[in-house]
Structures are given as C-alpha cells and as structure tokens.
C-alpha cells in the first residue's frame, strides 16, 4: 500500500531501528519510546489488521514474535513480555497495517497494562451465549 508507513519502513523508504527480519516479517523499535524495548512486528505483506490477515501471514508474524520474545527473555535481561494487538479503530489501532507489539517486562518496571481491575458485573452465561463460536 503506497501511503502505509509500515510498508515504507519495510521497503527502506523510512528509516527504522531494525531488530529482526526474515522473508515474511520485519521487526523494529517503536519510536514512541514509551516502554523500554517496545518492538513492533509486522508482516511484509500488507494486511489491515488481525481480522483480514490470512492464516499463513499471521503464523509467520507470530513465529517472529515468539523468536524475538524468547531472545529478549533469554539474552537481554527481561523477565517476560506483553504481546498486544489492536485491530480496528475502536480497539485503538492507529496504523492500519497488521502489527504485534512486544513490550519487554521486568519485575517492578512500573507498567500495568491491566490497571482497571474492577469487575464489570457481566452476566457470564449471557455473555457466553453471545460470544460462543459454533463450528
């Protein structure tokens, strides 16, 4: 896609801090610089988000995500990772090229992705009926 910033990064038209690359995926540091080591992993093939991404492309991205995440924990001093995807504007997707966020974590790093832990009072049986995937 011509106007996609991630497509331009993959093509080398915009500089990036590359972390990893293979034939299907490209990973680079998020220049937002909001979390230490915040990494974006994108498919080289343009997909809007996880909802339109073919299974083989999704698998390639997730293989790269796992490889990078293991490297961060086993060799870079992190103790774990958060993996985040936002699909759609309502889910706060800001760049409409499928991507996974890897946020490397250390105990006591001050990051709390689940800060609102209050119960919502949902009727779980009704919610199950609404959400259950039948094959």
Provide the fold topology.
Blueprint: H1 5-11, E1 18-21, E2 25-29, E3 39-43, H2 55-75, E4 80-84, E5 100-105, H3 124-131
Antiparallel strand pairs: 1-2, 2-3, 3-5, 4-5
Task: Describe the structure in your own words.
The protein is an alpha+beta fold and 135 residues long. Helices cover 27% and strands 19% of the residues. The chain contains 3 helices and 5 strands; from the N terminus they run αβββαββα. The protein is globular and about 50 Å long. The termini are far apart.
Name the helicity range.
25-40%
Query: What is the N-to-C order of secondary-structure elements (H for helix, E for strand)?
Result: HEEEHEEH
The CATH architecture category equals 2-Layer Sandwich
Query: What order do the strands of the largest sheet run in, or round the barrel if closed?
Result: 1-2-3-5-4
The tally of domains stands at 1
Q: What is the arithmetic mean of pLDDT?
A: 94
Strand content: 15-25%
Q: Could you give the count of β-strands?
A: 5
Number of continuous helical runs: 3
Shape: globular
Oligomer: single chain
CATH topology: HIT family, subunit A
Q: Based on helices, strands and strand pairing, what is the structural class?
A: alpha+beta
Largest sheet descriptor: 5 strands, antiparallel
Low-confidence stretches: none
Class in CATH?
Answer: Alpha Beta
Distance N to C terminus: 34 Å
CATH homologous superfamily heading: HIT-like
The radius of gyration computed from the alpha-carbon positions, rounded to a whole number of angstroms, is: 17 Å
